[in-house]
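does this look right to u?? 1HE version
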Amino acid sequence: MISIETSTLSIEQQENLLIISLNRPEKRNACNDELILSLEKVFDQLTSGIKCVLIKGNGKHFSAGLDLSELKERDIVQGLHHSQMWHRVMDKIQFAACPVIAVLHGAVVGGGLEIAAACHIRVAEKSTFYALPEGQRGIFVGGGASVRLPKLIGIARMTDMMLTGRVYHAEEGERIGLAQYLVEEGQGLSHALELAKKIALNAGLTNYALTHVLPKIVDASHQEGLMLESLMAAMAQDAPEAKQRLKDFLEGKAKKVGE
Ligand code: 1HE
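got this back:
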């Protein structure tokens, strides 16, 4: 059972799925340090009984990003440590013990987009809009966006978002790769839960390969990437769970593609 003492998050477990809600709706889920460190505590407590995590926002927005009221008077060293604290927590999301789905609506801006980008799947409701207002605030992204976002949308789009303050709305966001799913308003959580239930049925090693190994393959050189892929493929096919699944298919007991 996950337990944390904070009002900045609310946590609900539904069987083997965990739903984390960012819970500062009156501040549009602006991320103060308490919220980010609480996220870290939740991810530190994940056990093998949790097969997929969902992150959503309470109120009208997913998240307005960094709580700007805490930015005020940090010096360079404090700023460096603060950014690295975000990096540590975003890595705990990206390299969590199980896949993580972001359920998006309203503002997904600045640090809010950095949280969403650290998740493995993004489901966006039609009210979603994405921006990186750091450019307009005279600052720079600090929660990992410059590493993760160009992989989702390309360096040119991220540069444009920051230089011009461009806002992408839900439909465009899905088209350019900010979200993989676009759903009607109010349908984000139920859609994400359907996806999470499918993910929970996968072989654990396959989910691990996708969330922990694939990102390293993408960052590796061509030859190293291919070698990592071969090693992972060999490990995965040798697992008893894989052998059983292949046997089931060959005996006509497993679902066909698309069923
Ligand atoms: C905040 C924040 C915040 C709202 N920090 N307090 N992020 C931004 O630059 C986005 C700034 N926020 C906005 O543009 C808007 O608030 C929204 C478009 C997200 C939502 O608009 P709306 O009309 O629903 O809400 P609001 O009336 O603007 O805000 C409600 C309250 O939340 C208000 O406080 P109140 O005491 O006057 O009621 C706002 O001040 C407060 N609020 N957003 C602090 N961000 C790891 S580095 C990441 C760097 C960044 O993320 S920079 C981007 C910061």
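The mean pLDDT is 96. idk if thats expected tbh
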